[in-house]
Automatic annotation (TrEMBL):
This is Mannose-1-phosphate guanylyltransferase. It comes from the Bacteria. Residues 10-235 form the Nucleotidyl transferase domain. Keywords: Nucleotidyltransferase, Transferase. GO terms for molecular function: nucleotidyltransferase activity. The keyword Transferase applies. CDD domains: NTP_transferase_like_1.
Length: 238
């Protein structure tokens, strides 16, 4: 793979995991395990296999346990650094705080730490970069969208071809944002460092400017949001 394409990755792991209580009272949600492997370990192994080397993990709730479990990433042949938050800064705020550690040339990869997507083709997603960079008005975000799960039947955004819309369009499909995406550093340039900020309003703002592209992924993907879902995934993988 082109060295230019070996972008950094941010794994989002700062959430409190309220819906996962009591499991998350003593353990950060992304350290919960499926098939005896933490959610973060699944991601890290996949990133390493895809050739990505630089990973930043943000954390807030019980963050030291994440650092103790994963260390500097050498066990995954990765270089892991951490972006601690005294209290969770929401997704966009967390990304803004981690940007100096990521130090991307332009684009970087972000993955929600609490999604389970074994066999997700990270290499194919990264391969989109050359196309994005060549566009006349390069997208500020490229979102991986998935069919709407039972717990989120109304979806998030509309996808037609490779364009993401916030409102219905002829031939567009309403899908759910997977929590996996490529972002350009310029998307976050106006955010205040260390201030909470949500990602969805930021995305909607640039969607209106036709600066968000996307793709549909139909492989295994799960938002591990409740103890029941975690139990079901473990039972299915026995």
């Amino acid at each position: 793979m082109n060295q230019r394409n070996l972008i950094p990755c941010l794994l989002l792991a700062a959430g409190r995991g309220e819906r996962m209580r009591p499991l998350t009272d003593e353990l950060p949600k992304p350290l919960l395990t499926i098939k005896n492997k933490s959610l973060l370990a699944w991601h890290l192994e996949a990133l390493s296999a895809a050739g990505i080397q630089k990973v930043v993990i943000n954390h807030a709730w019980l963050g030291k346990k994440i650092e103790d479990a994963l260390g500097n990433g050498s066990q995954f042949d990765l270089k892991i650094t951490y972006s601690p938050e005294a209290s969770a800064l929401e997704t966009a705020g967390g990304i803004r705080k981690a940007l100096p550690l990521l130090d991307p040339n332009d684009y970087f990869l972000v993955i929600n730490g609490d999604v389970f997507c074994p066999n997700f083709p990270i290499e194919l997603l990264i391969a989109q970069l050359d196309k994005l960079r060549k566009e006349l008005n390069p997208p500020l975000a490229h979102l991986v969208m998935v069919p709407n799960p039972v717990q989120h039947p109304n979806g998030d955004f509309y996808l037609k071809a490779s364009q993401v819309f916030d409102h219905p369009r002829d031939g567009a499909e309403k899908l759910t944002f997977s929590g996996i995406g490529l972002y350009h550093r310029d998307l976050f340039k106006d955010l205040v460092m260390g201030a909470p900020a949500q990602l969805a309003p930021l995305l909607r703002e640039v969607i209106l400017k036709n600066r968000v592209s996307g793709e549909k992924y139909t492989g295994p993907w799960h938002d591990v949001g409740t103890p029941q879902r975690l139990q079901e995934l473990n039972a299915a993988n026995e």
